[in-house]
Write the structure tokens for this entry.
Amino acid sequence: MTDNAALPSDAVVLADRIGELVACMRTAEAELGALLVEIEQRGVMELFGYRSAARLLEHLADVPKQAGERMVKRARALHPGRNLDGSPIPALAPATGVAARAGELSTPMIDVITGVLTQVPPEHHAGVEQNLLSFAADAGHKQVAALGARILAHLNPDGAEPATTEPATPTRELFLRRKRTGIWELNGTFDDETGTRASAVLDAIAERRTSDEGPDHRTLPQRYGDAFSDTIDLALNSPDLPTQAGERAHVMVAVSLADLKTGVGTATLGDTGEMSAAEARVHACDSMLIPAVMGEKSEPLNLGRLRRLISAGLRRALYLRDRGCAFPGCHRPPRHCQGHHIRHWADGGPTDLTNLVLMCAHHHRLLHRSGWQVRIAADGLPEFLPPVFLDKRRKPRRNNLHQPLPFAA
């Protein structure tokens, strides 16, 4: 044990001191709340010239207005007040106010108790408040919240009567903007149903990848980001996607023929975006991006079509043969996959089953950027050759996770 290691007795003393200071803080905040209610009753405008006690507190204590408003609202629930005509307003939770002034309750605990009492019929206030306070003596605010929920369910098992028989309009807002750096920011607000459905979809797609390339070290936000990108691909591949100006939704990519062949350089993405030529080479295989191959004088040499090379019939044949991403160990189903040209179409590769393999977006990019190679074996099925650093013999590997098609005897 080192000289500065805290002994058990020291720990007790330190913990007791923390408890004393926390009680002092809670008592002071309760007294401050009572003072704010008194100022409101006497008139904030008449006394200080401020429109509200929260505004006064904002300037006196240097706290945000929202924090001041929460403090005033909490104090109103704990202390009696008066209406404009002078008639008294009883406190919502007077016993909770007494315990708060004694420094016994945390701010979250007070909010939990008052939040429950706002939903309890007045005739049950005193009993419910006492039950919650008794439980709060030996429990945290989360446990008290759970008790409050059970009490509310007992008092009103059917829930509150809806104000109208018409379903409420869901709250759905989404903001998407592109920064100058080329990074896009996404944020939004959704109703509970939409959020639950979105979470279920992302959770399903964001599972850790299992394949022969090694463990998946992506963080949860990274896996969710990749899952969102895959979800966009699923939507673009949907036959029910609405058209724009008579065409399926798409993005135009302009790249020079030389850059497309070498994978070195940049390509123009949409109106203002930019991507590497190597990335354009990946998407040119099979995606909802339309490749526009440009000559030396920026003249269009080849303007692709949506799903430029792989027809619907050929895609179905790929689905039947590969049954999903063909990369060893990958479990992604066909709807999450793209068609990859083993010999790139920019190099004259044909568009038929002997030159195509089904791959998910992640492994498609991996194949373009790493030492992995793919080929069609003598039996007509794809097999992958790992990089030398994974296997010096480069023994061919196959994906054996997908169920093969049943064939009649």
